[in-house]
Amino acid sequence: MKKEEIIALIEETITVRENAYAKYSNFKVGAIVIDEDGNKHRGVNVENGSFGLTNCAERSAIFSGITNGMKEIKVICIVADTTGPVSPCGACRQVIKEFSNKETLIVLGNLKKDYKLTTIEELLPYGFVL
Predict the structure, then answer these.
(1) Which pTM value belongs to this model?
(2) Which active-site residues does the annotation give?
């Protein structure tokens, strides 16, 4: 992806992030997954008073994609209000791994549009695989 395409994707993800339900932490996260056909699947974190029932933005976007027929993640962009680019939790890293490959581009960003491009191998070098 070209830099201007990455910035546009981050901007779109920042907009999606506003729909997050972060009543308890006030830490809103947005994610957009682009699948193998170029379709975009959006997700936000959805918190719950029973914290174990909370769902992260990354998993929300991936699960939406799977529901709509996605087989593989081509690009995933994740944005939050962090000092540097946001980093996904361990559970999200494992779910990203399940639906990605070595070519999957992972864009970690923040509201200032700082970003880091990475791969699932860098994020989860010894992820669980069957």
Answers:
(1) 0.96
(2) 58
